[in-house]
Amino acid sequence: MPSSLLVTNIGRAVTQTLEDRGPVPEPLGELVSRIGLLPLAEDAEAGRKIGIWECTPGRWPRQQKAAEFAVIVSGQCRFTPTEGPEAEFGPGDVVYFPENTTGIWDVSETIRKIYLIMS
């Protein structure tokens, strides 16, 4: 990976077409969220992935075990960690999940984020 690379910007991230990855693996309740994804860059040697992720309304346990940094570009959701206070996220929020963060996602309005996974 080059030392500097523009992979997207907020304006494009809101409108870029994502690949449908199907339903979340472990839905909680009758409303089953669906995932959209667009990988943008990967540095396998460093264990880093950058992309755009989207999810429709619903609830499910967080599946990602690696540390994650994200910028929410649209939508609304709540995350209730197993340990710690719940947090509400919306457009413009910057989020960090340490490695092995567990908890429940509750998406009320289709959420889209630009993410950096650090495994």
Give a quick set of tags describing it.
8 strands, mainly beta, Jelly Rolls, 119 residues
Number of individual domains:
1
Q: List segments where confidence is low: pLDDT < 50 over at least 5 consecutive residues.
A: none
Number of helices, counting only DSSP H or I runs of 4 residues or more: 1
Helix content: under 10%
Q: Which of globular, elongated, flat, extended, rod-shaped describes the shape?
A: globular
Describe what you observe in this structure.
- This protein has 119 residues and is mainly β.
- The chain has one domain: Jelly Rolls, CATH 2.60.120.
- Helix content is 5%, strand content 55%.
- It is built from one helix and eight strands; from the N terminus they run αββββββββ.
- Strands 1, 2, 3, 4, 5, 6, 7 and 8 form an eight-stranded antiparallel β-sheet that branches.
- A hairpin with a 5-residue loop joins strand 5 (67-81) and strand 6.
- The protein is globular, with a radius of gyration of 14 Å.
Write the layout of secondary structure elements.
Elements: H1 10-15, E1 19-23, E2 34-43, E3 48-55, E4 58-61, E5 67-81, E6 87-89, E7 94-97, E8 103-118
Antiparallel strand pairs: 1-2, 2-3, 3-8, 4-8, 5-6, 5-7, 5-8
Précis, in short:
The chain is mainly beta. The protein has one helix at 10-15; strands at 19-23, 34-43, 48-55, 58-61, 67-81, 87-89, 94-97, 103-118. The protein has one domain: Sandwich (Jelly Rolls).
